[in-house]
# Entry
Amino acid sequence: MSDLVERLTRITTNEPRKLTAEEKLRLEAASELTRLRAALAEAERERDQARAFVVELFEETDWPEGGDLDGFVFQEAAARAGILTPQERTEFCAENCHCAEYHGDPAGGFECYRKPQWLVDAQAARHAERAAIAAKGE
Ligand SMILES: [Zn+2]
# Structure
């Protein structure tokens, strides 16, 4: 398929003629295929991160016998799985971060664990859902 894209690209750049309807369709299909492959690769990467995280949590809690899970252990497992991204900072973050609560003086630099956007969005949606339910109950 990438061969097709190459050929069609050559046609569009070297030969000053209009593409046929079929060539346009093929080019669009190739472009869509490229987009879908990238989306699949991203979805597979996120799945692998989620699986690695779940495996670590099961190991850490020793389920079904297990007990509590320490917050630091949870954070480290999420970072190892690639869900949380440690970021060196010298200033506190704003919303969706508690790093300011854990570091009194940011001047010397500190590590902030950043959530991926999908997690920020999912948590915001859940909070909105809970607020709506609570508002109905009152
Ligand atoms: Zn932060």
